[in-house]
């Protein structure tokens, strides 16, 4: 068995992906913290996405660690790399969840049962909300869209980020208007939800309404925000980190009155 000090000495430099969506960024930061603090590694974060990370693995055998890779969107390349022993599948991050697909709101399906197919584009607002560039799901979606000839019957809106995709859902839900598009559900049926800057792109009126979402969902929400006013309004328990460490935590009012780092 290798000692802890020897393991730290052997770790060296490690590169890890920093994917451009919220849940993967959390996984990356946790992994980075554990490797640095527990193993003494020097960790470099590499901005990436599904397609670019798999391409880099195939061509350069880097980065060393890819976080939250949705294998159904990687095509044959990843399977070939794994079969050749060039990559190792470490863990199922969202087991047993990690569901993705094309979705409409339940209220829309209940009032329009015929929406179990895509033959009624006008009933979904005439728009499909597509994945951002660089995501594996974008390639999958584009192939299905082209095969079904959807560009001839509705607008295909290509989102620039996961945040704008999520915001489009929030705005439609607030107005109870039609919405049709791709989304994932890593926290499906989970008692705990992770929300990362979930309301930052919303205008002030819609944002205020959506901040009461927890009261409707009745779930514990780990909410990450850089807006102190929002944190003070939403939190029952507030945690303030800095440089990978927790500076202070407790009831929001107590932290506001007695800041640890003023």
Description:
This protein has 262 residues and is α/β, with parallel strands linked by helices. The chain has three domains: 4-83, Rossmann fold, CATH 3.40.50; 97-189, Glycine betaine-binding periplasmic protein, domain 2 (D-Maltodextrin-Binding Protein, domain 2, 3-Layer(aba) Sandwich); 191-262, P-loop containing nucleotide triphosphate hydrolases (Rossmann fold, 3-Layer(aba) Sandwich), CATH 3.40.50.300. 40% of the residues lie in helices and 21% in strands. The chain contains eleven helices and ten strands. The chain has helices spanning 4-11, 22-39, 50-60, 75-83, 106-111, 136-148, 162-175, 204-210, 213-217, 228-234, 252-257, and strands at residues 13-19, 42-48, 99-104, 127-130, 155-158, 180-185, 192-196, 220-224, 238-242, 245-250. The strands form five sheets. The protein has a two-stranded parallel ribbon. α2 (22-39) links the parallel β1 and β2 (42-48). Mean pLDDT is 81; it is low at 1-8.
Structural class: alpha/beta
CATH superfamily of the largest domain: Glycine betaine-binding periplasmic protein, domain 2
3D shape:
flat
Q: Low-confidence segments, ≥5 residues, pLDDT <50?
A: 1-8
Quick structural overview:
This protein is an alpha/beta fold and 262 residues long.
Topology at a glance:
Layout: H1 4-11, E1 13-19, H2 22-39, E2 42-48, H3 50-60, H4 75-83, E3 99-104, H5 106-111, E4 127-130, H6 136-148, E5 155-158, H7 162-175, E6 180-185, E7 192-196, H8 204-210, H9 213-217, E8 220-224, H10 228-234, E9 238-242, E10 245-250, H11 252-257
Parallel strand pairs: 1-2, 4-5, 7-8
Antiparallel strand pairs: 3-6, 9-10
């Amino acid at each position: 068995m290798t000692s802890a000090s020897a393991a730290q000495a052997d770790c060296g430099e490690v590169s890890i992906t920093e994917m451009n969506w919220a849940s993967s960024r959390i996984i990356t930061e946790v992994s980075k913290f554990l490797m640095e603090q527990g193993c003494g590694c020097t960790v470099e974060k590499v901005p990436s996405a599904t397609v670019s990370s798999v391409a880099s693995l195939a061509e350069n055998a880097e980065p060393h660690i890819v976080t939250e890779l949705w294998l159904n969107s990687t095509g044959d390349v990843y399977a070939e790399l794994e079969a050749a022993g060039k990559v190792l599948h470490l863990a199922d991050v969202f087991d047993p969840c990690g569901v993705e697909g094309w979705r409409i709101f339940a209220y829309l399906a209940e009032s329009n049962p015929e929406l179990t197919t895509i033959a009624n584009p006008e009933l979904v607002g005439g728009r499909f909300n597509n994945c951002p560039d660089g995501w594996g799901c974008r390639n999958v979606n584009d192939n299905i869209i082209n095969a079904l000839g959807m560009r001839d019957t509705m607008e295909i809106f290509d989102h620039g980020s996961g945040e704008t995709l999520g915001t489009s859902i929030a705005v439609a839900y607030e107005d109870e208007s039609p919405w049709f598009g791709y989304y994932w559900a890593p926290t499906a049926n989970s008692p705990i939800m992770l929300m990362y800057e979930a309301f930052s792109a919303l205008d002030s009126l819609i944002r205020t309404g959506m901040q009461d979402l927890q009261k409707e969902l009745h779930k514990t929400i780990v909410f990450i925000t850089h807006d102190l006013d929002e944190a003070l309004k939403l939190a029952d328990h507030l945690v303030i980190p800095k440089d990978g460490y927790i500076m202070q935590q407790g009831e929001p009012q107590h932290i506001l009155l007695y800041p640890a780092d003023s």
